[in-house]
Amino acid sequence: MSDEMGSALLRRIIGRRLAGLRKARGLTHEQAAQAIQKGRSTIARIEEGRDGVRLRELDVRALLDLYGASAEDSTLLLALTGETWNGRKKSWWHDYTETTMPAFFGLYVSLEDSAERIKAYEVELVPGLLQTRAYAAQVHRVPEGYVDEDESQRRVEVRMARQSLLTRPRAPRLEVILNEAALQRMVGIGGHGVAAEQAQRLIDASQQANISIRVVPFAHGLHGGMAASTPFTLLDFPRDPHSGEELEPTLAYVDTLTGALYLQKPNEVSAYVLTWEDLDRRALNEDDSRKKVLSLLEGLRDA
Fold first, then answer.
1. Which element (helix H / strand E) includes 125?
2. Read out DSSP for 269-303?
3. Half-sphere exposure of 275 (CA within 13 A, CB side)
4. What is the CA radius of gyration of the chain?
5. Residue 126 in contact with residue 234, Cβ under 8 Å?
């Protein structure tokens, strides 16, 4: 995704959230504009995420104060605002951006942070949000020579920091569907000790109320994930608490070694939604998936 496209997406997310906060406060465009000494059209354009609107942190902060936004909403919206212009204010992920986190992934992290539901399909690996430190360390060492050891360790720290997303107040729901290959691949990543620890992490996470982990076994044959042929993530964003309207349409994200695809067009997103629905039909239920991971864990302990 180009910087311009990413900025446009963030402006829409910021605008819709500010509109929701304004309405919850019972304020009109005119009242908000008067309070921060701006024109009515400026407030409307900010809320619509119009092209050409340059979000100023000072204005966004003034609106957040006016609307009585929570500390959590304020932190997130100011961080997203910083993403839309150069010389941005740093959030936790920006501590890593320049030296560790590729620019294309920094945008994903900010979007992931504002999602209400995260649906992740993985072919070969455990998703980053559920990886143990030892497992992540092994993953970041391949391909050999791509990043040095110091960089690898910093990327592991980013991955571990991201996981706080799942235990914060109002945490998103994480739904994971794993190809059985991802379970079998664990055994070859760092030895049985790393695999056993990772399997236990999956079992523990599967008992968390906002996390669902399911497995598509080899025995179930063809499935939609084969058409996608790569891991992908669907991000669902919150709806307006008053109107029920989407604050931002579902987004499909496909990560690659050197970049990423942010798919927003309805026909593109629809293809991945259909793929997810097919995987959902073919995957084991949560209990049977947990038993499959537990069986793997018991095998590793007996080995």
1. none
2. HHHHHHHHHHHHHHS--HHHHHHHHHHHHHHHHH-
3. 23
4. 21
5. no
Q: Give pLDDT tens digits for 238-283.
A: 876 677 777 678 989 887 776 667 787 889 999 999 999 999 999 9
**Which residues are bridge partners to 119 per DSSP?**
175, 234
Give the CA dihedral 7, 11, 17, 20, nearest 10 degrees.
-160
Least Cα distance to 157 among 124, 191, 128 occurs for: 128
Report the alpha-carbon distance of residue 232 to residue 255 in Å, rounded. 7
Name the amino acid, one letter, at 78.
L
pTM, rounded to two decimals? 0.71
Residue 164 burial (10 A CB sphere; 0-12, 13-18, 19+):
exposed
Write the pLDDT tens digit of every residue in 178-214: 999 999 988 888 788 999 999 999 999 999 999 999 9
* 215, β-bridge pairs: 178
30 phi and psi, to 5 degrees? -60, -45
Outline where DSSP puts E strands in 160-265: 173-179, 211-216, 232-236, 251-255, 260-263
Specify burial of residue 200 (Cβ count, 10 A radius: 0-12, 13-18, 19+). middle
Spatial distance between the Cα atoms of 194 and 8, rounded to a whole number of angstroms: 41
What sections of the chain are H helices per DSSP? 3-25, 29-35, 40-48, 57-67, 71-83, 94-97, 103-114, 133-139, 149-162, 180-186, 192-206, 225-228, 266-282, 286-302
